[in-house]
Amino acid sequence: MSDQHQPPQHQDKQPGDEYAMRPEPEYIRESYRGADKLLDKVAIITGGDSGIGRSVAVHYAREGADSVIVHLKETKDAEETKRLVEAEGRRCLVLKGDVAAPAFCREIVKRTLDHFGKINIVINNAAEQYDWDDITEIPDDQLLRTFQTNIFSHFYLTKSALPHLSEGDTIIATSSINAFKGNDTLIDYTATKGAIQGLVRSLAMSLMDRGIRVNSVAPGPVWTPLIPASFEDEKVASFGGQVPMKRAGQPSEMGPAYVYLASEESSYMSGQTLHLNGGVILNT
Q1: Across the strands, what pairs with 219?
Q2: How far apart are alpha carbons 217 and 230 in whole angstroms?
Q3: Listed residue (192, 188, 190, 74) closest to 142, CA to CA
Q4: Is residue 114 within 8 Å of residue 68, measured between CB atoms?
Q5: Is there a contact between 147 and 192 (Cβ–Cβ < 8 Å)?
Q6: What integer pLDDT is reported at residue 18 of this predicted model?
Q7: How confident is the model at residue 240 (pLDDT cuts 50, 70, 90)?
Q8: Which of 84, 96, 89 is nearest to 65 (CA)?
Q9: Measured between alpha carbons, how far is 236 from 227 in angstroms, rounded to an integer?
Q10: Active site (catalytic) residues
C-alpha cells in the first residue's frame, strides 16, 4: 500500500461506528485464501463488531472457525460482521453487553457453551481510549473505566473461559505499540496496554503445563472506529503519518496475525507479542 491519509472526521461516542467512517476500513483482502487452519474451532472475540475484531472474525470464518462477537452498543456494525461471517459459511453468535462487568463476562462464556458446546480461542480485544494532554485532567471515573474495559475484562473473561479450555487452545490479547514506547496524550490507555503485556507473559507461564498458549498482537496506528471516536478532526486526518510507512494500517493487515497465533503453526510460541506497527523499531 502507498502512503495514504483519511479525511478529517470525528465521532462523538466511544468506541465509534465503522459504518460511519470514510473511508470504511478494509477488514480482509480479496486475495486472502483460507486453508482450514481453524476448522471447527470456536472463538470468542470481544470488540468483535468492528475494526480489528471484525477482521479477526472474518479471517477466522475463512479459516473454518465459528465466532462469538461481543460488542457494547454498535448493533449495526455487529449485524454486518455477523453477515460477513455467515457469508463465509460459518456460524456467528452476537452478544451485546459491557465486558467491564464480570457478570457479563461469565454470561458470555455460558451462552457460548450453550450455543456451540465448546470454546477454543479467547480474543481479548475490546478497548477504549481518551486523548488528554495532562494527567491532572483525567477524570477519576474515566480512569477507572479505561482500566475496567481494557484490562479488568481480560481477567474476567479469561477466568470464566479457562475451565473450558484444553491443550492446544489459545488466548490472544490486543496490546499496542504504546505499551512499548509510551504516549504523551493516551496516558491511561497506554498504562492498560502495559498491564496487558504483564498479564500475557504471566498467564503464558502459568498455563504452560496445560498446553494453553497465550500471546498478544501490538498494533501501531490502525484505521478503526476508535480513531475518529478518540481524536479531533485534524488529528484523525494525520493519523498514521508518524510511522516509517507513513500511513495507518488496515484491520486486514492485523487479522492474519491472529490466525497465526490461534493455529498450530505457532505451536512453539507463548508469552510473546507480534508487532504490526508500520515499521517502528522497538527495544522489546
Answers
A1: 276
A2: 21
A3: 188
A4: no
A5: yes
A6: 66
A7: confident
A8: 89
A9: 7
A10: 189
What does the pLDDT read at residue 50? 93
Phi, psi angle pair for 76, to nearest 5°? -65, -45
DSSP the chain: -----------SSSS--GGG-SSPPP-S-TT----STTTT-EEEEETTTSHHHHHHHHHHHHTT-EEEEEESS-HHHHHHHHHHHHHTT--EEEEES-TTSHHHHHHHHHHHHHHHS---EEEE--------S-GGGS-HHHHHHHHIIIIIHHHHHHHHHGGG--TT-EEEEE--THHHH--SS-HHHHHHHHHHHHHHHHHHHHHGGGT-EEEEEEE-SB-STHHHHHS-HHHHHTTTTTSTT-S-B-GGGTHHHHHHHHSGGGTT--S-EEEESSS-----
- In the sheet with 66-71, reading across from the earlier edge strand, the strands are 92-96, 66-71, 42-46, 121-124, 170-174, 213-219, 273-276
| pTM to 2 decimal places | 0.93
Rounded Cα–Cα distance for residues 126 and 47 (Å) = 4
CA 182, 183, 184: angle at the middle one, nearest 5?
125
Cell numbers placing 234: 485534524
Report d(CA 85, CA 269) in Å as an integer: 27
pLDDT by residue (tens digit) across 23-73?
888 999 999 999 999 999 999 999 999 999 999 999 999 999 999 999 998
Distance CA 142, CA 149 (A): 10
The residue extents of the domains of the chain are 38-275
Is residue 23 reached through a cis peptide bond, with omega within 30 degrees of 0 on the bond before it? yes
Evaluate the CA torsion angle 114, 115, 118, 122 in order and state its sign: negative
Which CATH homologous superfamily contains domain 38-275?
Answer: NAD(P)-binding Rossmann-like Domain (3.40.50.720)
